[in-house]
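Q: My labmate handed me this sequence with no annotations at all. I'd like to see what the chain might look like in three dimensions before we decide whether it's worth expressing. Could you predict it?
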Amino acid sequence: MSADSGQISVLLQRWVKGDHEALDAVAPRIYQELRRLAHYHLKSERADHTLQSTALVNEAFIQLIGSQPSQLQNRAHFVAIASRLMRQILVQYARRHQANKRDGGKRLALEGIAELPVAGDEELVALDDALEALTRIDERQSKIVQMKFFGGLSAPEIAQVLDISLATVERDWATARIWLHREMNRTALP
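A: Here is what I predict for the chain of 190 residues:
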């Protein structure tokens, strides 16, 4: 873990405990982390997507600061929470954008989920629906997918955040990918 990550972790923990000076100190670093996440999320969106990274960052920042999570373990945990929040913002945006559209029975592919560009609103909504279903079946697998796919966290970082072994992360990741592939293709059929 880099020194900067350690400093961010300490400041985040102080902020959670009510230290507003810590929030002032960590806010610029959080904002930079959110910008990185926004670019990561938006690079997988369709080319004509109208939501800009600055708007996504600002919306996520406002929601994060307003919610003050009760427990932030470290920088990686913050990234996981922020990434999930950005996914929710993008899914809400996609649902509004495609309110009157349907997928026309198009099959959705999930091969190579970590590298998968979610090309349109339909795929993003289908992935979100599948993740919600996976959460009801296996919450840990769903968290792993969200951290890896939406947060860009590595398997060792995920293991650290969830306090589980690397082997468990890799096993759950493989299982979740198969389940999501099947679920997304099942729901996309007419």
